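Hi L.,

You mentioned the student needs an example of a multi-chain input paired with its predicted structure. This one should do, with 477 residues in total across all chains.
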Amino acid sequence: MLAASTSIFTMLSWGDQGYGDEIALGTLVTLQVSFLAYLLGFAIGLVGAVGKLAGGAITRGAFNVYTTLVRAVPELVLILLLYYAGSDSLNRLLGGVGLGPVRINALVAGIVVLGFVQGAYQTEVIRAAIQAIPIGQIEAARAYGMGPLLRFRRVVLPAMLPFAIPGLANLWLNATKDSALISVVGLSELALTTKQAAGYIKYTQGNPLYLLVFYALTAAIYLAISLASNQFFAWLERRTRRGQRQPA
Amino acid sequence: MDWSWLLVYYPQLLHGLWITLALLVLSVFFGMLMAVPIGFAQAAGPRWLAWPAKAFCTFIRGTPLLVQIWFFYYGLGILFPLIPELRTSFLWPVLREGFFYAVVAFSLSYAGYEGEVMRGAFLGVPKGEIEAARAIGMSPFTLVRRIWFPRAVRLVLPTLAGETVGQLKATPLAFTITVMDLMGATNMIRQNTYRTYEPLMLVALFYMIITFIMVLGFNWLERLVPQKR
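Structure written out for the whole complex:
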């Protein structure tokens, strides 16, 4: 495929001569895993925050254990533990009902595992944001006779967002960066794709400077994702703060 | 559950624990050493210093640590052996080890995150205190040494615990570049014994215990510093 004398432009080109398309695909996988894991984390976060604030002793205790444990253990260890535990218990479950073992799709596993980790952090951010809502707004909604669900949808959710967005923005950046950790269970996202490309360069004894170019390019792609996200969240925060008093 | 491997492998785990702690202490030390000037340059430096400091923080905070580590180990680490002078120098045994690249990457990462925190702290010192120091005729250097820097450190102390725990949780990434830290030892045990859960659960417990001890330590440190509000 590639000769040792291949130029860097060929190495980065589209098609089977270079790694351009592989890296583009890896970027898409990274974005996909991060986004879906983030959404899953947000869903868990909403349930967790409400559970922690309004649940009974058992619910609160369970969510406390969840957020404390997940936040005290390194993400890498968690991802490995959850990946093996998750695929193992699923296969045992399938075995129990008489179905053969399945190979877990690395993409789905990555999303679920990263979402589970995100959920613990988002629970804490959303809980703090709900507690920051002036209590009068919630009492007013109650005085109007709104039921708990309607109150949550119309008052709590929009009122907590401006408080939650800075924290949630940070967690989105964490999600994009933590998605690189999924590479340890073999998902070919951006980081692992680059590592494979670099491995190929080394194997074919290509120019070692190309390795630097590939890693720098990958870092630049992550950086671009981060910078674009920052712009987006700044806009979103301005939008959710419409009608609030602006600090002088 | 089978824990019999623990009797065979506990020396590797203990050694891994030391490596993890060494990674943490070295990177926090060197990282903080860089973070203070980086933060100060952003808060009070001239534009030609503030801009690169800001760019450094943005770059570190905007890219995954894993990619940074790989950049140093697989990227730069491949180039070093090509320099014959380096290969024969006394530095070579160090430059060959993944541990060295891990310390460099973790230190720079910590410097990037803490540089941003220190920027906020330097800006957070009340203007009046700095003006008062100027008014009694302190030289700029004394002002920084006696007033600005100590006050900024006091401001970051409560956040430092969380940041350092975050750094501890980043150290297992070193195992991807062959460092035999806690995670590296765990991985070796997993491969040798074919047991998955027990080693991973044990290492998770290890990290939780270290976190717990660190939080206690930082609480003690914070109480040493009088804080009047």
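You could point out the following to them. Chain B has one domain: 5-224. The CA atoms of residues 106 and 112 of chain B lie 10 Å apart.

Best wishes,
N.
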